[in-house]
Amino acid sequence: MGYLPHNFLFGQLKMNASKNGTVMVKKRGHELIRDPMLNKGTALTREERKALGVEGLLPHRVMTMDRQARRVYEALQGKSTPLGKYVDLADLQERNEQLYYRVLCDHLEELMPIVYTPTVGLATQRYSHVYRRGRGIWITPDHKGKIAKVIREAVGERDIRLMVVTDNEAILGIGDQGAGGMALAIGKLSLYCAAAGIHPRHTLPVSLDVGTDNELLLEDDMYVGYPGRRLRGQEYDELVQEFVEAVVEVLPGAVVQWEDLRKDNALKILDRYRNTVPSFNDDIQGTGAVVLAGIISAMRISGEEITRQRVLVYGAGAAGLGIVRQVRGAVLEAGGNPGQVAVMDSRGLLVADQDFAEAYKRDLAMPVELARDLGMGEPQNRSSLLDVVRAFKPTVLVGASGQPRSFTEEVVREMARHVKRPVILPISNPTDLTEAYPADVLEWTAGKALVATGSPFPPVAYRGREVVIGQCNNVFIFPGLGMGALLAETATISSGMVRSAAYSVAQNVSEAELAAGMLFPEVSRLREISRKVARAVMRVASEEGIGKPMTEDERSQALDDFIWEPVYQEYTAA
Questions:
Q1: Residue-wise burial string across 372-406, b where 16 or more C-beta atoms lie within 10 A, e elsewhere
Q2: Of 288, 402, 291, 389, which Cα lies nearest the Cα of 348?
Q3: Phi and psi angles of residue 138, each rounded to the nearest 5 degrees, phi first
């Protein structure tokens, strides 16, 4: 399949800038200052206020964006709770989107846990009670037969090139949150804009609001979502099919990131539509890629080869599936064998002699002969994590189970008995679901473990040294992957493109970061990392013949032309 034969005209997508760098604005007065993407608030100059009919609608003094950003940040410091900060930032985004992104970019490491994991989890739960204004598109069962019309009218003249789409059923580790899943889609797109520099005008959060089975939501008279039980089976499949067809018709070439779908739906939708619309599932592919990046970084510290690793993934949901696919692919690519990666679910080690209700688990299962050779031929010998760690002797232990503190002291000490530098990645989100705390892991391994977590943790003081805990967070993958696919104009997103994102992240962890114990870059470097990931993804798309052919210089120029900075431009009346 080749690249898409269309012109995105990226250079013309930044608010119709004229030749002298000013922006031609048609809106006037209240209409202008109520448009969050155009509103500059008190930063509108005297000339702009006069030309655009906003004289008298703003306080007298003209402020710079820097002063506005300082005022916003000072106000945020006065909020006592993360949710309070989240609500304030959401309100700012609805008033002045350019200022919102300036503040977010300036304080990305501090504010990412507010607009994304873990605070966004609470925001999804409280969504109906803190709701302010509609943002994005909700597709409900009432729209069946007219989804293309709904999208066309909702999008209007905006040139949408990137969507985060969720059906709200598997939000982080907290499950079905109904319409509240929109908060997660909005948060993801905020990071695309802040971390990769995609202009917010090109982004669209989408909730496939097909109902909810969350009893608390159904009983809540404040709930804003579709008030019925979830669509299942054929009805659900038909609505998703119509939605995908509508995207192809109305927004051809737009990249779709599937988010927080239940694992069976996630896998089915990914495999069914990946060649219909350029798309990927962040819970499957993004998680797999970021874990692979962490393992490769650990190998840079230990000096080991990936072909010599034994990887145990604790959790066989969508995240576990993605991790196994990416890690096994990398192991095989390097000359190893698939038996080096083992997987556990709630019943124990997955072995090929079991009957699996979920077909995808057959692909994850260990061969019966290998299980027998390891002393785990009988089910009772492979049911507990401790038993499997004792028999399999993993060098890498990944937690994707959502089972808090399941990496017990006994399990971690047993693992460390067999490995010089055990790699332990408890990545379940939010924080209270993590499989182990970094301080405990370091204590139990006498400081030998290489640790990264899904949620942010402070540095750990251990025996006179400070160990910085890197964040094994999909945010290092999806912004660059989505932007790279978009700029490559690819019609599909291949496994090679996803794996290239992982390699790029690992290769760009600095020597200083590795020396501090980090397996991932500082969050403050996200823009730099996302650009490098995007360029790697574009390169592989071109090499595989599925992306637009470009030289390295052309890729760099395409990124220069496309990446947006949240700064005010001069306005003139159209």
A1: eebebeeeebbbebebbbbbbebbbbbbbbbbbeb
A2: 389
A3: -105, 120
Residues 24-82 have pLDDT tens digits of: 999 999 999 999 999 999 999 999 999 999 999 999 999 999 999 999 999 999 999 99
CB 390 within 8 A of CB 375: no
Q: How many CA atoms lie within 13 A of 412 on its CB side?
A: 29
Closest by CA position to 269, among listed 202, 69, 364, 279: 279
Within 13 Å, how many C-alpha atoms sit on residue 172's CB side? 31
CB 492 within 8 A of CB 278: yes
Average pLDDT, stretch 455-477?
A: 94
Structure tokens at 75: 């106000």
Please give the structure tokens belonging to residue 530.
């996302």
To the nearest whole percent, how much of the chain has pLDDT over 90? Answer: 88
**Rounded to an integer, what is the distance from CA 95 to the centroid of its chain?**
25
CA distance 314 to 349: 9
The residue to which tokens 């789409």 are assigned: 165
DSSP labels for 412-462?
HHHHHTT-SS-EEEE--SSGGG-SS-HHHHHHHTTT--EEEESS----EEE
Q: What is the residue whose two structure tokens read 């990446």? A: 563
DSSP, residue by residue, 325-378: HHHHHHHHHTT--GGGEEEEETTEE-BTTS--SSTHHHHHPBPHHHHHHTT--S
Q: Which residues, other chains included, contact 372 with Cβ-Cβ below 8 Å and sequence gap of 6+? A: none
Report the pLDDT averaged over residues 241-268. Answer: 95
The domains of the chain, with CATH numbers, are 10-63+557-573 (no CATH), 66-277 (3.40.50.10380), 285-471 (3.40.50.720)
Q: What's the CA gap between 170 and 178, in Å, rounded?
A: 10
Q: What is the DSSP letter of 175?
A: B
* 360-375 confidence digits (pLDDT tens): 899 999 999 999 999 9
Average pLDDT, the chain: 93
Rounded to an integer, the average pLDDT of 543-568 is 95
Smallest CA-to-CA distance from 400 within 479, 466, 345 is with 345
Helix (H), strand (E) at residue 138: strand 137-139
CB within 8 A of 497, min separation 6: which ones? 481, 484, 485, 490, 537, 540, 541, 544
- Are 509 and 333 in contact by the 8 Å Cβ rule? The answer is no
- The one-character DSSP state at 64 is -
What contacts 271, CB < 8 A, 6 or more positions away?
Answer: none
**Residues annotated catalytic, as ranges:** 116, 188
Please report the sign of the dihedral spanned by the C-alpha atoms of residue 131, residue 133, residue 137, residue 139: positive
Per-residue pLDDT tens over the stretch 428-449: 987 888 999 999 999 999 999 9
DSSP state letter for 525: G
Position 359 scores a pLDDT of 87
- Is the pTM higher than 0.90? The answer reads yes
Contact of 44 with 62, CB cutoff 8 Å: yes
pLDDT at 7: 38
- In whole angstroms, how large is the CA radius of gyration of the chain? 24
Q: What is the pairing mode between strands 460-462 and 450-453?
A: unpaired
